[in-house]
Write a structure and sequence with these properties.
Length: 115
């Protein structure tokens, strides 16, 4: 059992997936790995995400220490998002997942068939 922020997880994999799993979080982290972005830039990169969902996902990533949010006091207000060091530590894992996805997509058949 692993405890993180008052929640018990069966194993570290469950915790990891709770932090970065879902449809949008890993994509948000990947795009922020390329550079610091504003909310509207992230929306353009993820055209199918709603404004509400992007806001929720960014807040969760920020609360879990994976994303920085910087507010600039100017008119109009400006907010930028970037990865924390903890968030940056996920980038090599995402690169491995991307390679796996490409290899899987390019394979003629699954490597483990149950006939």
């Amino acid at each position: 059992m692993i405890k993180y922020k008052d929640t018990q997880y069966q194993c570290s994999m469950e915790l990891s997936l709770a932090l970065i799993g879902g449809k949008w979080k890993s994509l948000i982290l990947w795009y922020l790995g390329e550079n610091t972005m504003r909310f509207s830039e992230l929306r353009r990169m993820l055209p199918k995400i709603t404004q509400k969902m992007l806001t929720q996902q960014l807040r969760a990533l920020e609360e879990n220490g994976l994303v920085n949010r910087v507010i600039y006091t100017q008119v109009p207000p400006k907010v930028e998002y970037s990865l924390t060091d903890e968030g940056k530590s996920l980038l090599p894992i995402f690169e491995t997942l991307i390679k796996w996805g490409v290899n899987h997509a390019n394979s003629d058949q699954p490597s483990d068939q149950n006939d």
